Amino acid sequence: DAGVIQSPRHEVTEMGQEVTLRCKPISGHNSLFWYRQTMMRGLELLIYFNNNVPIDDSGMPEDRFSAKMPNASFSTLKIQPSEPRDSAVYFCASSLVSNSYQPQHFGDGTRLSIL
Amino acid sequence: RKEVEQDPGPFNVPEGATVAFNCTYSNSASQSFFWYRQDCRKEPKLLMSVYSSGNEDGRFTAQLNRASQYISLLIRDSKLSDSATYLCVVNRNQGGKLIFGQGTELSVKP
Q1: By CB atoms within 10 Å of each CB, which of A70, A77, A80, A112 scores lowest?
Q2: What is the dihedral of CA B20, B104, A23, A70, to 10 degrees?
Q3: Separation in Å, CA of A93 to nearest CA in chain B
């Protein structure tokens, strides 16, 4: 079975550029989560969607970050303009339903470096 | 204070040792609890859910004490392949929002 698929795996770009990260959740999962992981702050939830609708975006750092989920099989996380402090590993995860008891399945992550 | 706090690492243990990780959470309304494992430069993966009655999966035993807001993970007969970072994870409401601890690094040596 295909797991959560993220692209690109690695991204290196200069500050000020727009960065778009992509995620395809597991088929049939209706909740999707975007996380950011750094050494200093650990794993932080940025935003999550239920049935393609954003539910909680309180973790989105600032207006430079935006996320969309146009359909059940695709989501994007966009950073514009990017800054060096955005360098991190960005994970996408999905789960069957958004309740307390369902585990989340993570993609391989996108390693983002902003120069 | 962080909402989910774990033992500071790293834990360096020999093969065959028993090792225990502890975790505390601050929100008494938390509803569900998990241990995830993360290998170096990989994604987190669910190791096991944690139930009030305690649960076991092979060499791994998880315990939950709601009164003390405390979660533990015990690994018996540790293997080299157990080397990873173990993340204590709490879901504090009926939504899908997971709160991750900082993780405890385990290194099992031959």
Answers
A1: A70
A2: 80
A3: 10
